[in-house]
Amino acid sequence: MFVSAIPHVDYNRWVVQEDWKYTDLSSAIEAIPYAMWFYLGVEELPLASEETIEPAKNVPRGLLMCISTLTVLSFGTAVFSSLISPGAAAMADVSAPLVTSFQTLYGTGATTTFFKWMTVIALCSSPNSYVFFMGQLLFAIARDGYYPKFLAYEHPRRGTPVGAVLFGTISCVLIAVILHYAIGDDDLGSVLINLTLLGALISYIFQLLSFVYLRYRQPNRPRPYRSPFGLAGAFVGLLLCGISIFAILYTSVTDTIFLASIVVTVLVFVAGSMYFFRVVLPKIQNNTLGSPVTTKDMNENLLSARSQVLISTGA
């Protein structure tokens, strides 16, 4: 698509004359949350390490491939979709800019229909991956004793984290339904994006701070994978997280509808903090918290689950 779009590119016609050229910093700040949406979720790939062959080697490769692909596709889609017909102004109101670009380049025939279906298949894989990683994350935390035990419940034969998947899915649907009745549908998608990004950014900050802490306190600890960016990369990441949170807050405080994303985020973290200080912290202090599962135990559990699946399927 990108190669086909090059002959149709016209910055003056589709950006300047549409009065959509860069004008001020405020607009750029407001666009940051939506730019982040391109890359949200790629950091969850390591949660599939238990299902990966040679994870110390293949997970970093997978991350590099994902980030490289996302970078090319995100920049290519944003740039070329804005520089061809119907132009940047029209694209701002289009729900599927990639499909609109296909129609501009290939018309409404079989080629565009083929690419539409390919886009649908790609979109179907996206929510499925989110559900998978959500279940893995909740299950891993519950398995270590920090979340209620029912979240660590697995399917007896297939090893699926049933409790975590059901709880996470129901919680997300409830939040979406509540916001639907609270603010309506016009801005619901944007509010949910801000809500998701706020939660993700806060978790990134905690992960980066944990990385810095472990690098300082346990510099010689054996690690199957070491970040090539080291502490400098962690501090740059913290800076970017701060800028991104500022961009979301900058957008939200100027619009009462978008304040809903901040309110929901605060409520979720307050509830989580109360649970930690009332339930988890006393267990840590009394040494009654379940010990984290070791790598050996995880591998044994994984092999056992896979063997049961193979037996049940007759493979």
Automatic annotation (TrEMBL):
The keyword Translocase does not apply. GO terms for molecular function: transmembrane transporter activity. The chain crosses the membrane at residues 63-84, 114-141, 162-183, 195-216, 228-250, 256-277. It is found in: Cell membrane. The keyword Transmembrane helix applies. Its main location: membrane. Signal peptide: none annotated. Keywords: Cell membrane, Membrane, Transmembrane, Transmembrane helix. This is Amino acid permease/ SLC12A domain-containing protein. It comes from Phytophthora fragariae.
